[in-house]
Design goal:
266 residues, mainly alpha, MetI-like fold, 80% helix, globular
Length: 266
């Protein structure tokens, strides 16, 4: 029994090392004084300075953040409306739309990328920022719908009907009754959409145009030469994600603790 527990702990630590050691390696060598990616010769911030001084890299960060934010907002709004509409539709329409919605997630990214590229070329739409943004919105919407649908299944329909009976307009019932109850699903869908958009490479590579690069396409273009500034960029992204995760977990705990203290005080 003790051997099994020891083996389980060892297995977990090996999996953790497999996932996190590469990240630690990238963070460590982002502070390397030399250009070597195998020998640490001393602590330095030169690659961070070079990163901020490289216009192409800063533009890739700007485009990645801008496209991810716009795609998240638009796909969350559209996905929420579609999901609520599906919850009120007939069973046949719901099944058909759900199957169609699952196609972009089941298809390999390369198939979606080539399909969007052919669509834009057929319509004679020049590739660039606009096509890249449309592509990101397109593949983000299904993830938003998939995140919201389970919450809608748990929704008590009588509450919305009661709100209408009490004088609310359909729009007021939507944002005062329905949306508050599915808020967690909307936030989850928005986070997934932002992550998918910010991280995407394959679809971005086939739908972007000259001079428009997000982080993934920029890094791919620099893989043929040693560029430690990419390590600095990756470190900042890891730091930003870590801070977001910490805040998203700590803030609800602080809010819950304050509510408990208020209840005790009352």
């Amino acid at each position: 029994m003790k051997k099994n527990k020891w083996f389980q702990k060892l297995y977990v630590w090996l999996i953790m090392a497999f996932f996190y050691l590469p990240i630690v390696y990238v963070v460590l060598f982002s502070f390397n004084e030399s250009k070597s990616l195998t020998k640490f010769s001393g602590f330095s911030l030169r690659w961070y300075e070079k990163m901020f001084a490289t216009r192409a890299m800063m533009e890739s960060i700007y485009y990645s953040a801008l496209i991810a934010i716009i795609a998240t907002v638009v796909s969350t709004i559209i996905g929420t409306i579609v999901a609520i509409g599906l919850s009120k539709s007939s069973r046949l329409i719901k099944q058909v739309v759900t199957q169609v919605n699952n196609l972009p997630m089941l298809n390999p990214d390369i198939v979606t990328a080539i399909g969007l590229m052919l669509l834009f070329s057929t319509l004679n739409v020049p590739t660039g920022f606009f096509t890249l943004l449309l592509a990101h919105i397109t593949f983000c919407i299904p993830y938003v719908i998939l995140s919201i649908m389970p919450k809608l299944r748990q929704l008590d329909e009588n509450l919305a009907e009661a709100a209408l009976d009490l004088g609310c307009t359909p729009f007021q019932a939507l944002y005062k009754v329905i949306i508050p109850q599915i808020r967690e699903g909307i936030v989850s869908g928005a986070l997934v959409a932002f992550t998918m958009s910010f991280d995407d490479f394959v679809i971005s590579y086939f739908t972007t145009g000259p001079g428009i690069n997000n982080i993934s396409t920029y890094v791919y273009a620099t893989t043929k030469r040693i560029n430690p500034s990419v390590n600095a960029l990756s470190t900042l992204i890891v730091l930003a994600i870590t801070l977001i995760l910490v805040l998203s977990n700590v803030l609800p705990l602080i809010k819950a603790r304050r509510m408990k203290n208020d209840e005790k005080a009352a």
